[in-house]
Amino acid sequence: MQGFGLSDVRGVAGFPNGEAQKSNFPYPRLNMARAFYRHTWGFVGEQENIEDAPNQLASKQDISRLTVSIGKFAATDFFDGNSYANDPRTTFLNWNVYGGGAYDWTMDKLSWTWGAVAEFNQKHWAIRAGYFLLPEVANSNSFDTTAFKRGEYALEGELRYMLMSQPGKIRLFGWINHGTMGSYADALALPITSASYPDLAMTRRTRTNYGVVFNIEQAITNDLGVFSRASWNPGEAEMVGWTDVHRALSVGSVLKGTAWSRPDDRISVAGVIEALSPVGRHYFGAGGIGILIGDGQLNYREEQIFETYYAYKLNRFTTVTFDYQHIANPAYNADRGPVSFYSARLHAEF
Questions:
Q1: 3-class DSSP state of 51
Q2: Which residues in the chain land under pLDDT 50?
């Protein structure tokens, strides 16, 4: 891989390109994204076919089963999934449409981490728990390897149901990060003459951050589906992996092209509203710097994002997507923006 994200992946909390990692690579480098061991224990009874897919081998398994995965992967390979907004290669591009917004997703600068996940699956519900390594400090490529003394702990319950003969899912996801973090309040309490005031790095010690994500998807017809995520964290400790968001709400819809004789095409729209905690506003207003944002001064307004895309299926393997995003109050600053982003993607998988 080689390259870098627009503006070095800074300047807006809901970044508009999910394929733009936070590391710059001026020269090609080799990266191993995933390497893990997985074992499944079936508990007999009704079975289902598991289709071949990324990170998944085709098989027939008991519906009632326990699956354990250990190794290197992305935390969102297992948690906070959504059929309509889950992958910037094929669905929405904006970080906080396909991501959890206020979920401080643990990762290196390329989205990966090391950990273990256990999932207990039943026909109408599932529960999964995981442990992942945190970065040594915020937004870094090195991990804190003091396993179970520090790290991210995740728990999610998933309920599957039918509403007017159409499938739906509700997921409630909770996470706890225990590791090296700064404090917004402590950074503000530093002497104003301190270098780089207010500097989160000067306040870093072992702290705990936590949050929840409520995630729903619902098919309305065979062609139309809707989704929403609502996420929250206290907004007192430094974000270590994802982006600078303490409250977020996203809503969207995806429509297949059956009505215009293009059943494999999709047209989609989504909106996101993001906010900072009160102490987070004061920190960034005083000139603080976060993972993605920091303007020196802050005329605070909630960041607002609109995204729409059309995915045109060229053939069995290839899709071309045209995407538009409008972002108001980038980095929560009413003195900036609004800004529009236009993009196109060519995606092939086989």
A1: coil
A2: none
